[in-house]
């Protein structure tokens, strides 16, 4: 009898979500047999069920393990895959992409990239982006407008940076807004649990995760978060319970705005000096003070006393040679806008009871230090950008930016970055689909909506997209307009799909390239975000097991393809080790150093609070905004035709009679978006796609838990099983998304994502009505009805 193979433990980290939890993996005989937490790792206190399912994911029989080429027309649901060699596949792919770029421009090739926050693409994302940008295409469907854009990029309209990491450990209160860390960022959930002295305020339509423990929980009606934020800000302003010193010195709230033009008053207009760039504020005694956006200082002195700068009131300022003009401090305009959101108005708009609204306000007022975070629960609406602005400005009132107990910018090691936005060839960004309509949004960074890709494929508008190269993105199930997606993918000249399993989107590909799992490859990680100690750790994750079959990493694929397309010099001659060694040069570490220490190497870093106040040249660092201050009033938005401060007109709700429910959705803690329903240990926890209703709502429709029901919008319908939840608003329905896979081990069927008989949530969503800045569509606030099955769609 053969002896059992020795079991060894290997240090690493999980990359199935943003948490990047430290983990230890048990391996025996070339097989992964167990994943468990690594308590000594800065993010290793716990490991979720997805992370623990690593052996099932790595050894799934549904993985594709060899390069495949299509042999049937794209209208055939069976691709008729035939196995080909890597050499044959890559040679043909490079030749065809190169020919399309030569004939139609790089913009004629679109790319699809899945989220690095919720999938293992995080191992390769920076090299994929380097490839796309140097190839020259400004058209990547990243899903950013329905995922991270608002917290990471729209936040810059206010602070000049994305949301900083919340310092839970030192906070007096923690505000979780459209963000359930238990499902999407386990280490944040762990940190919150350890912050026992902090009060939690949770804003969520569902009482789930930390909303169950929140005091208070604000059960907001989907899509009304902006009004809620403005209402809370109004209470803080009315009570004068905000950090006035921070607002006066570090926001543009004191700068005077001309009421006739809506623009900041400039020194040149007052003194008649040509070319003067300084802006104007005013003291309470009427004296004018001038602010320089270059030095970020008032009256050219970093120590100028700003305590007396006026925040309120209208004043008439004499202009040089032009008479007086009425002006108001930007903060006064913001206070006026907030004042329209009295508690009774907010309660009616949001369905949050006045008592809960006031309790939340009291918590924020009493807390000296407030940490906050918001995510896609805020971002998937028609007014997502202004909603993010409203939340950002509410938190500006607390003055906790880059401050202990607030939100902090930890110091990071200065590795050489593989990618940045300057890598696009000159003039290419302006060709991004949707750039003309949304020049301040994701197209300005080469990120486009799936709807615009579909239009370019099918209508050639504004120019044809002839090819798609997809890295893990399952657009037909993760984006709206599913029928349009099917039509577009069938019409593509050429489609390459890189993934580990065949998804509904991959079935339309001309080539399928098999990607290995994260436990079969190395990955370099510079810091782990959650503390300064965590950011001090550099780790090269080791392969736990050999790659299955002929599968390769996404990084290997792009290095090979880049070399074949003439970009070899930018990809280190195709040598990934040389590329990573170059990245490590600034910290003086080698790959050999990191391979010898698979648990990672710590190089101490120190956190410096309030870096915006540090001296810089003749002034201070300030904020990376047009005024160099926190932008309560955004002239940049105004100049592009948008409201300079958050505004939320009451919706017309013309569909309310036909579709009485507000439909929303949320990420499951058991799956990575549209993946892994084929994993038995995960599927047992959530075997069936469901729609959750208040019991009274279900009863009114003759529905009981377990019944199958139609969920219908003006755009489409699907079938889901009914669940009930007595804490849910009776006017809200919560439906699952991401469903298509069956589970052979459990005998559970697949769901056709392209049929109304299936359970594809995105069949219900249209990209027709979108946020005018970001293009976000209402995945979480669409009008719907839920009804019992009556046959024939009646």
Query: How many beta-strand runs?
Result: 33
Biggest pleated sheet = 7 strands, mixed
Helix content: 25-40%
Strand order in space, largest sheet: 5-4-22-21-20-6-7
Structural class: alpha/beta
Q: Averaged pLDDT, please?
A: 95
Quaternary structure classification: single chain
Organism: Marivibrio halodurans
Protein name: Molybdopterin-dependent oxidoreductase
InterPro entries: Asp_de-COase-like_dom_sf (IPR009010), MopB_CT_Acetylene-hydratase (IPR037949), MoPterin_dinucl-bd_dom (IPR006657), Mopterin_OxRdtase (IPR006656), Mopterin_OxRdtase_4Fe-4S_dom (IPR006963), Prok_Mopterin_Oxidored (IPR050612)
Domain 4Fe-4S Mo/W bis-MGD-type: 7-62
Topology:
Blueprint lengths: L6 E7 L8 E7 L2 E7 L11 H4 L1 H5 L9 E2 L12 E2 L2 H19 L4 E5 L11 H11 L4 E2 L7 H6 L1 H4 L5 E2 L6 E5 L3 H4 L1 H9 L4 E5 L13 E2 L6 H14 L5 H7 L5 E3 L8 H5 L7 E4 L5 E5 L4 E2 L16 E5 L3 E7 H10 L3 H8 L3 H13 L3 E5 L1 H4 L4 H13 L10 E2 L41 H10 L7 E5 L3 H4 L3 H10 L2 E6 L11 E4 L8 E4 L5 H4 L1 E5 L12 H11 L11 H9 L6 H6 L4 E2 L12 E2 L2 E2 L14 H5 L21 E4 L15 H4 L6 E4 L1 H6 L7 E5 L4 E8 L7 E4 L46 E7 L6
Helix pairs in contact: 3-21, 4-21, 9-12, 9-13, 9-14, 9-16, 17-19
